[in-house]
Amino acid sequence: MKSKNNILKIALDLSWLKFIWALWVIPIVFIVYNILRYFIEEEKFIQQGFLPFVYGPTKIFMLVLGIISVSGFLTFYVKQGIPRKDYFYGQTISAVIVSFSIMLVGFFIALVEKEFVSGIHIETYLGQDPSWILLYFIYSVNVVGYFVVGWLIGAGFYRFGVLIGMAYIALAILILSIIDRFWAFELKELLGKLLFFNGVEFPVVLSFIGTILLILMVLWMNRVTLKKVAVKMK
């Protein structure tokens, strides 16, 4: 029971802290988006609307949070006598909560925009004007993926230092490339050219399953990396 209470408390505490940081990020992204809409006359950018625009910065934001999550939070909770396992599960739950919540805010803004601004036609891997509910889950799951990959980078540097940490970065780039290739996002060209399947389009179900499996694999790697790491108490 105590372990479950620890996990829940950690999840809620970390989620609240990340929400506070996100309160700075989302308004800034919204302001930048509207400034760019005013100056950029490219039709595709205007038609895509706020949703695809906020998705990119959200991934980077969660990636950075993942990177700093080890040095920033693991040490703190271990000092408080919290087992690493409880920290791990609490951090994982927090990542899911925050990722889905931030994207929910982005979707709400995008829905308002679509209602009051004419000419918004989102075109993605799923086609033009796809199901918003499906798109919400896809975007949110991918944001979770970026956090756990950032967490992997942070874990590698925390335990092994710079040299092996650089290898963790290379592994992280590979994993993100695979995830993005599943959904034909930004990094698809990189892995496509390396593995010769740049023109392949995966079914949505396969892409979703593949993404979930990759996230679980990275979580396992994070758990193994941090399981017996010497915590830096200073």
Task: Describe the protein in words.
The chain has 234 residues and is mainly α. Helices cover 81% and strands 2% of the residues. The protein has 8 helices and 2 strands, in the order H-H-H-H-E-E-H-H-H-H. The protein has helices at 2-39, 43-48, 50-79, 84-116, 132-160, 162-183, 188-195, 204-227; strands spanning 123-124, 127-128. It has a two-stranded antiparallel ribbon with strand order 1-2. Strand 1 and strand 2 form a beta hairpin. Helix 4 (84-116) packs antiparallel against helix 5 (132-160), helix 6 (162-183) crosses helix 7 (188-195) and helix 6 (162-183) packs antiparallel against helix 8 (204-227). The radius of gyration is 19 Å and the shape is globular. The relative contact order is 0.12. Mean pLDDT is 83; it is low at 186-196.
Could you give a quick summary of the protein structure above?
With 234 residues, this protein is mainly alpha-helical.
Query: How are the strands ordered across the major sheet?
Result: 1-2
The tally of helices reads 8
Order of helices and strands: HHHHEEHHHH
Q: Shape from CA axes?
A: globular
Mean pLDDT: 83
* Helix and strand composition category: mainly alpha
Distance between the termini: 30 Å
Sheet with most strands: 2 strands, antiparallel
Helix proportion range: over 70%
Radius of gyration: 19 Å
As residue ranges, the low-confidence spans are 186-196
